[in-house]
Structures are given as C-alpha cells and as structure tokens.
Amino acid sequence: MPGFNFDNYQRNNFLASKGYPIPKATSTGTTIVGCRFDGGVVIAADTRATEGDIVADKNCEKLHRISPTIWCAGAGTAADCEFVTQLMSSTLELHALSTGRKPRVVTCLTLLKQHLFKYQGHVGAYLIVAGVDPTGPRLFSIHAHGSTDVGYYLSLGSGSMAAMAVLETKWKQSLTKDEAMSLCAEAIEAGIWNDLGSGSNVDMCVMEVDKPAVLYRNYRTPNERSIKEKSYKFPRGTTAILKEKVWPVVDAVPFDIFEETIIREGDKMEIDS
Amino acid sequence: MDHMPENWGRPRSDVYGVYNPAIHNAGPTTHTQQPSITGTSVIAIKYNKGVMLAADNLASYGSLARFTDQERLIKVGKETVVGFSGDVSDMQYLELLLERLIIEDNYDQDGHNLRAPHIYEYLSRVMYNRRSKIDPLWNAILVAGKKDDGSPFLAYVDLLGVTYSAPTIATGFGAYLAVPLLRKIASDDGDEKMITEQQARAALDECMKVLFYRDARSLDKYSVATVTTDGEVTIEQNVRCKDMSWRFADHIRGYGTQTM
C-alpha cells in the first residue's frame, strides 16, 4: 500500500501514556561550517561529543566521507549522522556505478532530504554537505525535517551562531583556498571557545576541483592537555607480594625460526569452480 | 450532618450563582507576565579610557517592527549610561525610578553624585526583589560608567536578578552573535587597557551589522553611547549599519537542484 505507515504512532502514544516515553537521543552539541572558495569548497568541525552535560568523546570525527570528493559534516544526534551518511555513501556509490558517472552533490542532497523527510525529523541529522563534482564545487545544508539550503558560507550546530558571527564578519566573495581554510578554522574556534557544546580540536576537509580531497584531521589543536606535573605511578613494592605462581600457557618460540609460506598465483583459493 | 465544606454557610446558588470549585485548585497568586513591546540586544565593551555601548532603535510588538525610534540607552546622573533590553514599559518604569533616585540623592547637596556601581547596586536590588515576588520586570540591563577609583565599570543584571561583570557583555541575541566577536579583542579582565576608542567603536559597529544580518527582531539604525573615565557621556544617535553584504545572494537560486 503506498504512502506513509503510521501504525507505530498509536503504539508509541499508548506506551508513553503507560510510562514508557520515546527515549531522548544523545546529541553531539557541535559547531560545523562550510565555505566556498575559488576552485573548491572547504568544511570544518569541532571534535567534542556530549551526552547531556558530560563530554563523551574529546576527539570524535564529525567529518564523514560520502564519496571521495563529497564530504559531510554532521550535527545533531551522532548516531543518526553517522548512519545516514554511510547509507548515502553506499547508495551513491551504487548509483554512480549504475550511471557510469562520478557522483554529484545534488544527488546526495536529494537522497538525504527524501530520507529525512520520510522520518519527519525523528532521524536527528543536521548536515552540511559539500563537494566537487562534474558541475563544480557545491555547498548545501540539510535539516532533520528535510529542508535544504544553498549558500557560499554556512554553519550548523549549537555553536553555529558563534561561527556565523565570524563568517559574517570575514567572508568575502573571492576567497583563496588558504583564506577559506583559515576563515573556517577561525569560525570553528569561535564555537569551541564560546559554545559549551563544542570544544577540543578543529577538523577540516578541503575539496578542490580536479584534485583529490584532503582531510586535515586535527588541523588545529588549541586545547592540548598540559604536561602532568609529576608521575603518579606507584613504585614497585608499594603493594607487598605475598605469593607468586607462574603458569606456562604458551611455548614461546624464538623469532627467527618461523616458517615462511609464499602463496603463488596458482595456489590462490578457488572461487568459481 | 454535611461534611462537605463546599456546602456550609454558602449563599444560595439560585441567587449568587453556582459555586466555582476551581478555587480548590487555584494555586498561588502569580503575576509572571509575558513581555509585550520589546527591545532586542544591548552590547557593550570596555576600552582603555572607558566603556562603549550600542543598542538599536527598534521596539518590537512580537514580530511587528512597531517603533523604530525607541532610544534604549539612557544617561543616568552625570557619568553613567544604562542600556535596556526586554519589555519597554518596564524599561520606562525603571527610568522613572532612576530619575527619582538621582533627584533624591541631590537633596543632600553634599558634592557627591551617584555613580555606575551605585546605580547598578540599586537596580540589581530592585530586579531581584521583583523576581522574588514572582512579578519580574522583564528586562536585561547593562550599566556602564566608572568606578570610584576611576577605572571603567560594566555590569549586567536581568529579570532573574542574575548579576555579572566582564570586559564584554551583551544581552539577548548579542550573547550568541556579538560576544564571540567582542571576546576576540577582550577576553580577560585587564585586556581593555590595550583597546583604543576606535577599535572599540569598530568592534561594536561590526557586531551591530552581524546582529542585523542574523537577529530577526533587529534594526540597522542604532545608538552608540560612550562613557569615559573622565566622566564624559556622549550618546551618538541615528547611526546606520554601513557596507553590508547582500548582493552575493543574486547568484543563489532555489534550495538545491534549481538552476534558473
């Protein structure tokens, strides 16, 4: 039967009334940005993942690869961003093989928005999708309910306003690659310092026309932990040893007696008999 | 014997109407309001010779841009400026209170005048007391001036009675959009000694531009107030956002796949 299936709506309402509401998903609390420049597009993100008020991961990766030249930054529910992105990556690759053409950003955009709209915002993925394809450099943003926007500079996440303040001040029409990179890094840093949901490092990905995309993991690390003042290791002997027994579990063999087996072409596994 | 209090010694229902049982579930008396006519962000930064504030001239009625000539930066006494955001009628009431405060302080004719820290203390007491009566004055206020020792003074107080002091402060949307920009030039106490008046003014102008871009309840016409440590107060009015960037939107079509 065509159309949306709302069977679970009734069930969920009933469960909620009985004291089992829909669990609140954890979100990343993020600053992500994207910026077009002459001959390409660059995206950047912070690296803090939060579970409520706790920092769950100090150096998580919010930049996802959809295709070699199409990358995506994700804000909102971390798992939703990761999985919807991987789903698109697989779908796009199959689609590209089918069409015989390099995948396009607008294809990814349409696939994503149709998927997210179908789930009426319950898949909490807020994404900045960017890349280069045969039509040139592209930059878009998508919200969990399925709306999309086009722009030369965009920001999303809890730190989006801090980042946008920097982008609105320093963006101009003709940016070089290096200018765009430092603009994006500065915008993410505004989120890192001024937004509590964002922090740690800056990740960046530069997608330039006719060049392979370059991922700069930890492009900036302005929050490195300082050297601990002393070593807190307990010296041997702090805990008294009362008894010692050794069970030999494996026969240790010296390194140089290993046998080498070389697999030649003809010895490969038979796949089709 | 009738055990139901609702039925004791009551006037006749056919004469005085049926008893309203809602009185049992009434709860405490409350006055918490919704603001009606409101002003948006006020932003401020300390610099080497004083403090500078800016606030736009818009008084909104929800989503209607109702009054575009509303001055929200007020000179109080000789050496202090107070900036208001939030409900405009509560702002006008506070203006009245401050006027009375200054007049009554003048009775003494003892050569002393109320300065920013004193006006701030008075305002924060009023705000906190009103919140404690669950009847707040729906504002967020910045008080700027100089301390008795001559150094610049800048502090914040709001409808909850929260008080806060820093080299850069902004109310409303300014907290999200302006503060990150202002903190780039003054992040810690003492940084203001390195900022000139021109730098402070340039920073505020830039922030007001960003606020006009991204705050849906803002205006591009605003006032800038400067309070120096020499005790001079200037309020420049009818300043407009300049060199704004809107043209690039010409090239943007649709929301994804549209080409024309």
UniProtKB/TrEMBL annotation, chain A:
Keyword Signal among record annotations: no
Catalytic activity: Cleavage of peptide bonds with very broad specificity
CDD domains per UniProt: proteasome_beta_type_7 (cd03763)
Active site per UniProt: 30 (nucleophile)
Pfam families linked: Pr_beta_C (PF12465), Proteasome (PF00227)
EC assignment: 3.4.25.1
Cellular location(s): Nucleus
GO biological process terms held by the UniProt record: proteasomal ubiquitin-independent protein catabolic process; proteasome-mediated ubiquitin-dependent protein catabolic process
Enzyme class: hydrolase
Domain of life: Eukaryota
Any one GO MF annotation of this record: threonine-type endopeptidase activity
Record key words, sorted: Cytoplasm, Hydrolase, Nucleus, Protease, Proteasome, Threonine protease
Keyword Glycoprotein: no
Chief site of localization: nucleus
Domain Proteasome beta subunit C-terminal: residue ranges: 222-249
GO cellular component terms listed in the entry, alphabetical order: cytoplasm; nucleus; proteasome core complex, beta-subunit complex
Assembly: The 26S proteasome consists of a 20S proteasome core and two 19S regulatory subunits. The 20S proteasome core is composed of 28 subunits that are arranged in four stacked rings, resulting in a barrel-shaped structure. The two end rings are each formed by seven alpha subunits, and the two central rings are each formed by seven beta subunits. The catalytic chamber with the active sites is on the inside of the barrel.
Protein name: proteasome endopeptidase complex
Species annotation: Lipomyces tetrasporus
Lineage, broadest ranks: Eukaryota, Fungi, Dikarya, Ascomycota, Saccharomycotina
From TrEMBL, chain B:
Protein's cellular compartments: Cytoplasm; Nucleus
GO terms classed as biological process: proteasomal ubiquitin-independent protein catabolic process; proteasome-mediated ubiquitin-dependent protein catabolic process
Keyword Transport appears in the UniProt entry: no
A GO term from the CC aspect: nucleus
A Pfam family per the record: Proteasome
Protein origin, superkingdom: Eukaryota
UniProt keyword annotations, A-Z: Cytoplasm, Nucleus, Proteasome
The keyword Cytoplasm is assigned to this record: yes
UniProt record similarity statement: Belongs to the peptidase T1B family.
Function: Non-catalytic component of the proteasome.
Protein name: Proteasome subunit beta
Source organism of the structure: Lipomyces tetrasporus
